[in-house]
Design a protein that fits this description.
Distance between the termini: 18 Å
Radius of gyration: 19 Å
Number of strands: 15
Shape: globular
Strand content: 35-45%
Number of helices: 9
Length: 305
Amino acid sequence: MYNFIINPNARTGLGGKIWTELENTLKERKVNYRAFLTKYRGHATSITQKLVSETSRCTLAVLGGDGTINEVINGIPDLSAVTLAYIPIGSSNDFARGMNLSHNPHTALEHILTPSRFTYLNIGTTEYGPHKRRFAVSSGFGFDAEVCCRISFSRLKPFLNRLSLGKFSYVGVALKSLLLQTPKRMIITMDGNKSAAFDKVYFAAAMNQKYEGGGFMFCPKAEPADDFVDIIVAEGLPKLKILCLLPTAFFGKHTKFSGIHIYRCRKAVLESAVPLPFHTDGEPISLQRRVCISSEQQKIRFIIS
């Protein structure tokens, strides 16, 4: 039994149209499936919790964007009991990009129905105060989180989504946010013993995948199945230099610049001098001064092709 969790509003309504096409294929091939359409923020988490409570093992096929994947993994109590599949239809699709998945919905569906390659993925966890939230792509603190917050309320993103140019909305908002931002002091402690202090941090992000923000390859060597998270810190850079540097991040070449630091660890504590914007998989969360980020030991089975 396949359980499809669909965000019909993904990419300004394209998700619903794509699902109608795919469902016709499922019916024609007499596939045994159930479909659940999300209706509000957080609904995919509730749907997932209900589905996994009904059986000891299940297959969840997600149609949506990075935010929908995030909601689904946050509804799974036992990662080892689930096989996860994904049909990317979001505006940034950083998870699909990092996993090298097909962006053709019909091809992605065929991979789900007749899978030949699987992998076991790490899932990241961010703890803030008494709360905990998982991430599949990244969790960021500072500038990148501010971009995610602004994107959530941007009128530009729906317009660009209709033109299939949604990822460029991140670039425009990023440039605006950068010009308005003042870098902050931050201390990062990794694996409980290695600490690094920075006076002027623009952002720090923990990456489970190579990409975030619509295709920025912030951590080129990040691997989603290596039991580690990669941490990128951008600090002490003049804003003009960052403006020049940002385009190189699409190709992972920014790592050669001074002021860009990349670490690999199992656990990191990020502490800021003042509360900063914070996100998991592009979903903004309230301002925080201290977050603890780690890679879960338990992995989830994932259909690649």
